[in-house]
Amino acid sequence: MDFGLSPEQELLRDSLRGWLADELSIERVRETLDNDDAGVASRAAGDASAMQGLAEQGVLGVMLPEEHGGAGLGLLDAVVVATEMGRALTTVSYHSACVTAPLLLAGAGSAEQKSRWLPGVSSGKLLLSFAVGELGERDGALTGELRFVPDTATADAFVVVSGNGSAARAWLVERDAAGLEARDYQNIDTTRQLGELQLSDTPAEALAESDDLAGLVARVNDAARVVLAADSFGACERALEEAIEYAGVREQFGRVVASFQAVKHMCAETFAELEPLRSLGWYAAFAWDEQRDDAARTVALLKAHSAEVSTRSVMATTQVYGGMGFTWECNQQLWFKRVGYNRQALGGPVAERARALSL
User: Fold this and answer.
1) How many other β-carbons are positioned within 10 Å of the β-carbon of residue 22?
2) Helices (H), 89-134
3) What is the pLDDT of residue 209?
4) CATH T-level topology, domain 7-123
5) CATH class label, 128-207
6) Which CATH code for domain 213-358?
7) Is the separation of the CB atoms in 274 and 305 below 8 Å?
8) Is 347 within 8 Å of 303 (Cβ atoms)?
9) Are 169 and 204 in contact (CB under 8 A)?
10) 121 Cβ neighbours under 8 A, 6+ residues apart
11) Integer distance in angstroms from the first to the last C-alpha of the chain?
C-alpha cells in the first residue's frame, strides 16, 4: 500500500503552515504569553482575529458535517492540522474545542442543539469545551466538580459527560448557567488553559440521541488522543529544526556546537525516533476513520509511545542549548511544556498501555 498524505492534505499542510508563520508566528504567540497583564483568558485564547483566521482556513470545523459549516473531512485531516498547530505553538485546545466537544455534540445532540452550536464552532464564533466527571443530577440540574477542563476561561458552553457504560449521560451546560463557577489553573504549559468547574444545581440540556453514548464518548476521546499525539509530533519536529539551526551558529571552544559528535548523535537519534511516530500517527488516524477492528488498540499504543518518544525528543533538543534551553527567553521550553501537557491529557503512557492490553 502506498500510504501517505493525499495531494489535498499536503496542500492543507503547506497552506496552514504558511498562514501560521505569517499571521500567528511564534513571535506573536510569545508577545501574548509575555503580557502578564492580559490575564489567563486572553493569553490562552489569543485575539478574536486569530480565531477568525483559523476558521477562514477551514481548520476549526475540519471534522464537522458540511451542513453545519464544517469541512466533512476525517481524522487524518485533523492530524495534519494538529501537527502544524503543535509546530507553531498555536494557543488553541484543538483536541477539546474542535474534536471531542463538537464531535460528541454532533453524534448525540438534537437537531436543534447541533444547528445552534456547530456552525458557530466552524466559524470561530463559538467555543465548546469537553469535561468528564461524576456529577449528581436532579430535575435537569447538575451538582458536582469537574477538574482539568480545557478553556474554562473562554468556552461558551461545556459538553459534560458523567457515568460509565450504560449509565453514561451527557449534557450541554452554557457558560452563563446559574450555579456554574469556573476557576482557572496556573498551568506550566501557558499555550493552553485548564481549570475546573463547580456546579451547584446548574441547569443543563441533556444530549440523548445516541444508542451507545459510552461507545461514542470512547470514540471521540480516541480521536482526541490521536490529535494530541500529532500536536506533540509537530512540536518535536519544530523543536528539532530550531535546535539544529542553533547548533550550526553557536560557537563553543572555537567551534560551532554542531561539529561536536555528541550533539550530532543527539540530533540524529531524535530524528530517527520521531519519523516512525509520524507513520504510526497516520495509521491510527486511518484506522479510526475506517473504524477498523484494531483502531482503539492502535490509538492507545500511539498515545503511550508518543508520550515517551516526544518527552525524550524535547529533552534532547533542550539540552542542545545548554543551560539556556529552559530559560523563558528560549523557545525550547515552550515546546517542552506543551509536550508535557499532551503526555498526560486523556491518559499517560502507563494508563494507555494498560488500556491497550484490555482491548
Assistant:
1) 10
2) 94-95, 101-108, 111-123
3) 67
4) Butyryl-Coa Dehydrogenase, subunit A; domain 1 (1.10.540)
5) mainly beta
6) 1.20.140.10
7) no
8) yes
9) no
10) 60, 61, 64, 69, 97, 98, 102, 127, 128
11) 26
100: its cell numbers: 471531542
Quick one: pLDDT band at residue 300, thresholds 50, 70, 90? very high
Cα dist from 183 to 70, 174, 193, 238, whole Å: 31, 15, 11, 32
| 103-113 average pLDDT score | 94
Residue spans of the domains in the chain: they are 7-123, 128-207, 213-358
Q: Specify which residues 199 forms β-bridges with.
A: 144, 180
Please state, in angstroms and rounded to a whole number, the distance separating the CA atoms of residues 224 and 206. 22
| Its pTM surpasses 0.85 | yes
Per-residue pLDDT, 38: 46
Bigger pLDDT: 347 or 164?
A: 347
Per DSSP, 139 falls in state T
Contact 124, 51 (CB under 8 A): yes
Q: Which three cell numbers stand for residue 210?
A: 445516541
Note whether 128-207 and 213-358 share their fold: no
